[in-house]
Amino acid sequence: MPTSYLNADLHCHSTFSDGTLAPAELAARARLGGVDLWSLTDHDELAGQTAACQAAHAQGLDYLTGVEISASYAGHTIHIVGLGFDCADGPLQQGLHALRHSRGPRAQEMGHQLALAGIPDAYAGALRYVGNPDLISRTHFARFLVDAGVCADVTEVFQRFLTEGKPGFVPQRWAGVAEAVQWITAARGVAVMAHPARYALGGTLEHALLDEFKTSGGQGIEVTCGGHSAAEALRYAEYAREWGLHASRGSDFHSPAESRIALGALPALPRRLAPVWELLADRIQPAPHRAH
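-> structure tokens emitted (292 positions)
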């Protein structure tokens, strides 16, 4: 049985969404980082799953199917990671298809808003950074703004643009939290609340979100992740215990130049937590040398 000390990295992104590396490059980095169990979790997209599993096995890594689903809650965008699901599940595929095809009109409006702010051609500029035009996102606009010299780095972009109250911000209606969780669980997967500290909801609203997530069938929460400080990891470890959720671990790696932490470089989960991969033991796709 896997332990909490397993080097699992169950959250990262490839060129199939808003990462800068192909699945094979990510798998190689995961192996160099000492990862034992890996998952590629592109935004609202499953197209990289076959390549990721093949690359993981070529590197001697065990693999879990993964996706990060965009959801809306009380006017905030929330991300739900799905792990260990059946990629061929029809309702999951249909739901993700609908989400992907809602991004294009939003991106065009973001470009229009940036033009009004004195930054022309931002939509065309962002498209140059997109591997899959259906998945154009704020990250692609941010890379354009950095390379165009408008901002020094991605952090400055999100301080000045693309967030609520700033030029280029366009709200998006995603799936509901319960809907996203149910897509995952109906496909035999486990739903995990991604990087919960990022949302800054405040106590009452955050508790209500976790209640809805758990009631809808959510079973996991990211405790140790690239976006959490050590103090936040301890806080969400307590939340995992309080809500009876299994703990997950993922770097949220996007790019060597942009990500806070490398694949496999996260600290271990805090003690006395049930790791999410213990729920998924029968859905892990083992590397050939680990097959029983």
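The chain has a mean pLDDT of 93.
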